[in-house]
Amino acid sequence: MRVLTAQRASLAPAIALALLVAAGLSGCGVGQGPDETEILWDTWGVPHVYSSNTDSLMYAFGWAQMRAHGDRVLRLYGEARGRAAEYWGAEHLASDRRVRTLELPEHARRWAGNQDMPFGGYVEAFVAGMNAYAEAHPDRISESRTAVLPVKPRDVFSHTLRTVHATFVAGRDLRQAQRWRRAGSNAWAVGPSRSASGNAMLLTNPHLSWGDRFTWFEAQLTGPDIDAYGAALLGMPFPAVAFNDHLGWTHTVNPIDASDLYRLPLAGDGYRWNGRVRPFNTDTKVLKVKQPDGSLRADTLTVRRSVHGPVVGQWDGAALALRIAGLTQSKLFEQYWRMLRATNLSQFEAALRRQQMPMFNTVYADEDGHILYHFGGRVPERDRGGWSYWQGVVPGDTSATLWNAVHDYEDLPRVVDPPSGWVQNANEPPFTSTLPPRVDSAEVPGYMTPRAPAKSAYMFRPQRSIEMLEGDSSITFAELQAYKNDTRMLAADRLLDDLLPAARASDRERARRAADVLAEWDRTADAASQGSVLFARWLRAMVGGAEAPFATSYRPSAPRTTPDGLADPEAAVQTLAEAAQTVEDRHDSLDVPWGAVHRLVGPEGSYPASGGDGLFGLFRVLRFDEMEGGRRRATFGDSYVALTEFTEEGPRAKAVLPYGNASQPGSPHRGDQLQLYAGKKMRPVWHSRDSVRAHLERRVTF
Prior knowledge:
- The protein is of the alpha+beta class.
- 31% of the residues lie in helices and 24% in strands.
- The chain has 20 helices and 30 strands.
- The strands form five sheets. A ten-stranded mixed beta sheet has the order 19-17-16-8-7-6-5-2-1-30.
- Strand 27 (641-647) and strand 28 (650-656) form a beta hairpin.
- Helix 2 (54-80) crosses helix 6 (119-136) and helix 5 crosses helix 7 (153-169).
- The N and C termini lie close together (5 Å).
- The relative contact order is 0.13.
């Protein structure tokens, strides 16, 4: 059944009608008419969407997201509206108050009205596909989530603002009540001079929480002038990390300050500003809260705004106002669409120069052999203070601290085709994006990024990344996969030569036994590794306790060899004895295998985990929540992993999405890649239509 797209004004009903007919067309035929739109679902639940019309392509992409994650995406949109308490109860009220205080729905309405064509129409089509799926399959959507329907284009933008601006950019300042961990990531681009094949290669490896607004949705979009494969953050109409026939890119979270808290001395009904009293701009909002009996009660929220932004808290008799960069840059979708369609470095950077994304490093590789690192985002231009000053609460009683402009693209750290043949980032500042350094810290404003991480131990993971790249002058595609799955704890190599002799000389019997275990340990966090649980317990206590635990703290002049050694070996031995007692009390053994404690838990079972916190110098990042019986469950870390090589025949790629490409109850793809990930394996990416047809699970046509 064709999707009718001649008039966008009638797009939604026309597509909805088409969907009702197409709902039953889910066989495995492989023909496609010249104007037909189809989704080929492969056996890992990845939708490959094909259309000769971009509106229809985006419609089918929205339809596919709803099929795989309908309940979740509707919850996310309801939360982004600031109406989750109205739909689902008082436990969502704190989130609603935050969303409404930041006025994300108002910003989203402005974004929706500010889209240039055809991009605004693409978002309308994406939303129409979501609504059509929900209308055609009401039995597959939880009844409680249908309160959000119909979805509107402004929901897409409000969700984007909540995820990117309020969480990634301003999460530290907001001190969100929800459990949210600072996101991370690894990224590599390997140039021809360091690649065994002479082809550029890309490692995509974001580290995010496993679920909620951080859920990745893997897909391929093939339409007019586009054939892109990658992963979108759920609810967004574009892949955020992707490759096409010519190039690919990934992102990591960069240490950037694109939001600030301002302290406003209160005076009467206003605040002090440039020697006078300025009134707040004040609105009163009424939020509805669903009660257990189904009735609604009203909750009143007063929002105060200063010249800086909304007031988000009180501190020491003063108001705290939040200023976030990028709230008026509404063309984020358009920028990524241009990135997806770029065919070379020049076109790709032209898209990046739009600076619609307020943060993130970009690491890039292409078929011509170019590689790129760029420290991206909207960095405010400031005329005073360094990094530490702007990390604190800034005086807000004078216009001297109020920024209004941001740095241009060319002002930001950038490395292209370095002599080393590689660029990388593991969330550290840009100065070690390659070695020898190509970014001069003297040319980067002090407030733009720190010269070193807040804690020396945070450099262990970047250094392990660099160590693997530097140690291999001819990297194969297979070796790229092996390096990605490396579980060496670099911190052990730096610290055990001090710890073991001190522990063996101690009069603490438990410390001596612990030293014997660590001496025999293989220094990895592989599932079978014995000693890693003990070492991790000790190092976490050391870093969290002593202000300066290392004999030599991290020095930018020695980026590969510091931090090193123990500042206080005696205190370290005492901490080791305490860690050993905790491990024995919990697990009855000092050499309990890592995978016996750390688990990958899915709907169909539990598997031993390999990997852990980057604090230990681990490149294969996982973080865990406590479970019963002293075990721990992975809930954060390697959330989407992809390897891409740009060959003469076209890109070849492998990927793994540990938690699977669906969350809807009953889907066979909930957690279906967890066992694959547990075994350090990856699946081939089926990119050509013939390869997709050879691994076809379901076909839907429109």
